[in-house]
Amino acid sequence: MPKTRMSFATTVDSALLKDVRALAHDEGSKIQSLVDEALADLLEKRRSGKPRRHVMTAYQSSHARFDSLYRKLAK
């Protein structure tokens, strides 16, 4: 069953909107999909109080890759 969509009106900083439009264009996506993604990320972050999954994945990958360097820096 498709999700029900609702419209709402808001205003945003003009520079932010310009950047979002450019990002949508560069990715070949619609602004709406970026707004959906941003709102979902915000809700996940606020509800869980934890870093987003992709952030933690990158963090853990960094530790796997640079473990010996991090150990040397810790000394």
Compute the average pLDDT. Answer: 90
Succession of helices and strands:
HHH
Record field, number of beta strands: 0
Structural class: mainly alpha
Span of the ends, CA to CA: 56 Å
Give the CA-based shape.
elongated
Q: State the share of residues found in helices, binned by percent.
A: over 70%
Beta content: under 5%
The number of helical elements comes to: 3
Low-pLDDT stretches: none
Radius of gyration: 18 Å
The major beta sheet can be summarized as: none
Number of domains: 1
Commentary on this structure:
- The protein has 75 residues and is mainly α.
- It has one domain.
- The protein has helices spanning 14-27, 31-48, 53-74.
- The longest helix has 22 residues, at 53-74.
- It is elongated, with a radius of gyration of 18 Å.
- The N and C termini lie far apart (56 Å).
- The mean pLDDT is 90.
Q: What's this entry about, in short?
A:
The protein is an all-alpha fold. The chain has helices spanning 14-27, 31-48, 53-74.
Give the tags.
75 residues, mainly alpha, elongated
Write the layout of secondary structure elements.
Elements: H1 14-27, H2 31-48, H3 53-74
